[in-house]
Amino acid sequence: MAHSSKSPDSLENLTLELRRGCLPLAVLIALRTEQYGSSLRKLLARSKLKIDESTLYPLLRRLESQGMLTSEWREHDNRKKRFYKLSEYGKGVQFLLTCEWEQMNAAVQKVLTRSDAALANPQPSTDTPPDSAKDDSDGTH
Predict the structure, then answer these.
(1) Second label for 96, Cα 20 to 30 Å away, from 3, 69, 72, 105?
(2) Cβ distance 47 to 23 under 8 Å?
(3) How far apart are CA 56 and CA 24, in angstroms?
(4) Do residues 70 and 85 touch, judged by C-beta distance below 8 A?
(5) Is the pLDDT score of 140 beyond 70?
(6) Beta strands in the chain (DSSP E)
(7) Strand order in the sheet with 79-86
């Protein structure tokens, strides 16, 4: 299959989509300690998560409007800066999203480490519930 930069499934688009999905969680985790915008960008960049201001500030406003963050203007280094931190609601959301991330990451890791043979010849899953329609002889189902 030929690579086309106009293809909606191009690597660049998929990478951007993946990043967009991860950034809100990364921001929530980073804001467990109070940060202002540029300090947050630097903190994320040190973790290899570079984020443009044009992406970060709308994300911060959206998270704040959803009640996950609180903010206040304060003087810092002789300049007024807006400081952000997690609200109590945001702490709960961050915890739940982190759990979801860990589960998703573990599932993707399993897929990544399976052999081609296992993928080609899948074994029945033990995670599926028993078939509820297996014996209907008593007429209760």
Answers:
(1) 72
(2) no
(3) 9
(4) yes
(5) no
(6) 35-36, 69-76, 79-86
(7) 35-36, 79-86, 69-76
Contacts of 82 (CB under 8 A, 6+ apart): 36, 37, 71, 72, 73
Q: Could you tell me if 63 and 40 are in contact, meaning their C-beta atoms sit under 8 angstroms apart?
A: no
Token pair of 107, please? Answer: 């599932």
Residue 106, token pair as written in the block: 């573990």
Contact criterion met (CB below 8 Å) for 87 and 68: yes
- CA gap 31, 71 in Å, rounded: 11
DSSP symbol at 44? H
Q: How many CB atoms lie within 10 A of CB 24?
A: 17
Chain segment 68-113, per-residue pLDDT in tens: 999 999 999 999 999 999 999 999 999 999 999 999 999 998 888 8
pLDDT at 126: 65
